[in-house]
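Data availability (excerpt). The following record was deposited with the supplementary files.
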Amino acid sequence: MVTIKESEVEPVNTFYAAFDDISTTRAWDRPNLYNLIKWRDTLFNLHNGLDGIDVFLVGGFAEYLHNPRNPLTWDADVCFIVDEDVDYNRIKTILDDSLRIALDIGIFIDQKAVTPYVFNFFQQLQKGVIHEHDYTKLIFFRNYMGFDKIVNGVKIYSSGNGKPWWDSPKIDVTNVYPGLWKVAGVSEKLINKVINKFNEGIYTGRDVDLRNSDFNFIT
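Predicted structure:
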């Protein structure tokens, strides 16, 4: 289990983060198994078990649960598996509620609603395999594009500064519904980031099925 010394973390006296129209003044902590399950149970109960939508924990926190020797992350990456013709109102509501629940609990869920094609592509990528792919089929949905974070009066991040992640010839963004964006494509920067984590031994392609897992992990 990773131990974080208190002296390594700057005390947070004031905090503000905004994801377009969803905001919080509560600083989030690193995810743990307890607050992940609390988030999952609250969201599933609110949305009738997310009928017809599979949900997976992926990325760094999923790898950490399988191997606590891995570094502990500051967020939990979650994929909602949907078809491209998903009900926009439904998935927008689910993503909004998911983010609000997580922020109320005190964790940050880095979430996307992705097609099976995207999910399979990234699962292989986290195993160090880059398959031939059609960028136009790498489709996912987000419920915000802007992000601002201010800690102790200092702006740590603002989507209005610098080049946004979607400013790429291989990424196309469409506002398909109020507060919901359809993204087609992925940047080479993200692909390289995932491959680098595989090469470092952090990513192995492991995930957690949040619908069916018994959460029998030792952390």
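Summary of structural features: DSSP finds five helices and eleven strands in the chain.
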